[in-house]
Amino acid sequence: MDVSPQVRIAAGPAPQAKSGSEKIRGAEILIRGMIANGVDTIFGLPGGAVLHIYDELWRYREETTHYLVRHEQGAVHAAEGYARATGKVGVALVTSGPGATNAVTGIATAYMDSIPLVVITGQVPTAMIGTDAFQEVDTFGITIPIVKHSYLVRNVEELGSIVNEAFYLAQDGKPGPVVIDIPKDVTAQLANYQDDRGVTFDTRIDHKAPTREVVETTVEKLLAAQRPVFYVGGGVVSANAANELLAVVEKLNAPVTPTLMGLGAFPSAHPQCLGMLGMHGTYSANLAVAESDLLIAIGVRFDDRVTGKLNTFAPVAEVIHIDVDASNIGKLRKPQIPVVADAKQALAAIYAKLSQTTIDAEKLGAWWSKIRRWQTEVPLACEYSDTEIKPQQVIETLYEVTDGNAVIVTDVGQHQMWAAQFYPFKRSRQWLTSGGLGTMGFGLPAAMGAQIALPDETVVAVVGDGGFQMTNQEIITAIQYNVPLKVLIMNNGYLGMVRQWQEMFYDRAYSEVDLSVSPDFVKLAEAYGAIGLRASHPSELKEVLHEGLEFDGVAIMDIVVTKEENVFPIVPAGGESRNMILK
Amino acid sequence: MRHTISITVANEAGELSRIVGLFSARGYNIETISVGKTLDQKWSKATIVTCGDEATIEQIVKQCARLARVKEVKAVTTLPHIEREMALIDVSVKAGDERQEVMSLVNIFRAKVVDISHEKMILELSGTQEKVDTFIEMLSPMAVNEVTRSGCVAINRLSPLEDSVKGLQYAA
Ligand SMILES: Cc1ncc(C[n+]2csc(CCOP(=O)(O)OP(=O)(O)O)c2C)c(N)n1
Ligand SMILES: [Mg+2]
């Protein structure tokens, strides 16, 4: 990689207001720096250490909207939802100590899924750092393992360039969360504000284009493969490479299987899409990978939820691994062809090369007939009942009612897997989920953030009765700001995913998973000023979804489903992914 | 396999903890670590001795290179190199035969006496880690009171092949 003396900063709107000669407070430098970087939405909650910042926010309230959450975890998840839905940097602002520790879960969630965030945390005044001052916590230290980069600002003169660099780093290469920890005194000190985007510290510029040689060998392998499979993940989404992917795989007539994070990067209903792979992947996707002779892994990281037992994953395949993060390549599986490159550029280069070639349309005929056989042998399906609503049916009905166009944001658990399996996605960023950290409580605030980012889209939070109760306080935030949040609670009366494992692997010892004592979600919704709707019988389902989704405001839909339904297929943790339990 | 990794990182507060944190978070072992400024005072160089198979060392190099403030990472030991460690050793020695015995060891190892009293001496030695180990071992019949070791520093040899042999390294 090159050593470059400067960070490249993408041009954003120029800051309005005063020129560089006038000294302003650190707090104002921060706000103006954020506005200059295109920030129009901030999620946060104030406290002592950030009072100056909130004072400036008040003055700049015409230029950027602050959403007052009710818990800082909600702020970070909302910022994540905003970022995941748009690809823009999400911003959260919290106070020192407990504000920062409450934000930690969200930061870790964003880190694991490579989501661009800037999280501003207040800190006690510089002179008090290290004295166990009131609401002091070592935010820099606590967040080191879960950030892409972080700053403890010690000098107001640095603040402007730190803000610029933070926004650059959050998006550059493999995106991730960046924390700026700002002592209170720094926000009060005066300095000149200059929009110096483009002039900051020495740092790396990621090499983003693949070399010609590697593209050539890749194409040779692609043309020679008898049983290729494209295994595509969140990296394709964050690189905006869906079109390039489509072009390449259509040209090759090759099968594609997205990971949980890659859903939407390739249209689920496309005839070449095998559905998701991995622990709750489809029969055909897992078998295709198991028998493949060439695995083209793009923007993925061979996560254990995908591979199962690593050394039996794609055991006969050669691997081409395309990733912008060199450390991802070879971390778990050593590829024959490592391609350190941006997915969009790599796929475009591969396509350019491929388009000069004529491809025998029949070449993969035998491979496809095998795959089609697996698909008919074990399709994703569920039997409806006359008396109970089936969770899979909820997702299928949701698909129908939204014409398959809604942005689906989930929490973590069984409902998440059913949504992944039964809602065919059409486009990137239509599916927002906490894949890496698996954070319960993510869904509702993230959906609020996404709905704020996409006011004209239907955004639906699909959550479990467990996860809903972890962050439902943000309903009131949605009410306060007229965000027409839609929440579908898949109410099975259990911490369902844990119950499923206890049923299958622990002799049905249902240890601490019973949620039958829960609040009345309809009344709860009403207490918040939202509408609450309930469906407990199959005949009520469609009507409730219609009514809830069409309501111009916050709607909480409590869908009471079969209590002990299981997610299938399932590859037991650490098992061979071809050995799926099918029912 | 033991390897020495050399990391050029911004000379800024907190950057070293990020590297050390990365080692512990990912379960890599740190045998020794030493840090100092480089020619350009904006950058420090940390030298870390670690162990792991080839794949682990490759991961360490790549993971460190990923940090925003890291400029260059080299697995120094994947190429011909020179490695040194320094030790300061406090030994109790009485005047007479015992002192003569220590002095002969000092001569054999080309160590130095940097302080002396009626009862004690402080010795300074630099050399490969192995040499330092051996010296301390040879002193063990005496009463060694305290040893302070610097940890290793290393640099690649000047090589006529310099341009063609790259070893395992990442420049950021
Ligand atoms: C914060 C957090 N705590 C615990 C877990 C472990 N966990 C994973 S799924 C699950 C059950 C979720 O229950 P619910 O929200 O009702 O969803 P369901 O599985 O029933 O659809 C639990 C406890 C987690 N992922 N996140
Ligand atoms: Mg549940």
Task: Identify the notable features of this structure and list them briefly.
heterodimer; A: 583 residues; alpha/beta; 6-stranded parallel beta sheet; 22 helices; 37% helix; disordered N terminus; B: 172 residues; alpha+beta; Alpha-Beta Plaits; 2 domains; 5-stranded antiparallel beta sheet; 4-stranded antiparallel beta sheet; 28% helix; elongated; binds thiamine diphosphate; binds magnesium ion
Commentary on this structure:
The complex is a heterodimer of chains A (583) and B (172). With 583 residues, chain A is of the alpha/beta class. Helices cover 37% and strands 16% of the residues of chain A. Chain A has 22 helices and 21 strands. In chain A, strands 4-3-5-6-8-7 form a 6-stranded parallel β-sheet, with helices on both faces. In chain A, helix 1 (26-36) packs across helix 2 and helix 11 packs antiparallel against helix 14 (365-377). The longest helix of chain A is centred in the first third of the chain and has 16 residues, at 156-171. Chain B has helices spanning 15-25, 54-66, 97-109, 129-139; strands at 2-10, 32-37, 43-51, 70-75, 81-92, 112-116, 120-127, 143-156, 169-171. Chain B has 2 domains: 2-78, Alpha-Beta Plaits, CATH 3.30.70; 82-154, ACT-like. Chain A, domain 2 (Alpha-Beta Plaits, 2-Layer Sandwich). Chain B is built from 4 helices and 9 strands, in the order βαββαββαββαββ. Chain B has a 5-stranded antiparallel β-sheet, covered by helices on one side. Chains A and B meet through strand 7 and strand 10 of A and helix 1, helix 2 and strand 4 of B. The structure holds thiamine diphosphate and magnesium ion.
